[in-house]
Amino acid sequence: MTTTENKTMDICEIKSYLPHRYPMLLVDRVLNYEENKTLTAIKNVTANEEFFNGHFPHKPVMPGVLMIEAMAQAAALLSFKSIGLKPDENSVVYFVGIDNARFKRPVGPGDQLRMDVEIVRNARGIWKYKAVGSVDGQVALEAELMCTIRSVE
User: How is domain 11-151 classified at the CATH fold level?
Assistant: First the structure.
């Protein structure tokens, strides 16, 4: 019988890989990852999020662009773990493209957005991922994300 190691990341480790900080850091924990394959992370959505002040005060909904951004941050973590690189202050992951983004249900205060990202391919410095966000087992959004790691010197 073989066992697989459950690889996780807490918020301190996440912050050592991503340059984002409040209010733009949108990954709270990595539940599991496998280099060069997949990563599962969560964003705990609270009523205290800044964006709920204007989107929408009478029925708070997490903006779709921020859900996509959260999945892109999860994808960046998977890329850095896959290449065994810990970025410095001059490294950044940029969006190159977003395809087939679909929003299936709103995400609001009290929800836990689970993000599953899978590497589809890595060619010529462009990473392509399949990304799915869900709440309580229901798909909230899905998209294909393309990103690249660059130096910003």
Answer: Thiol Ester Dehydrase; Chain A (3.10.129)
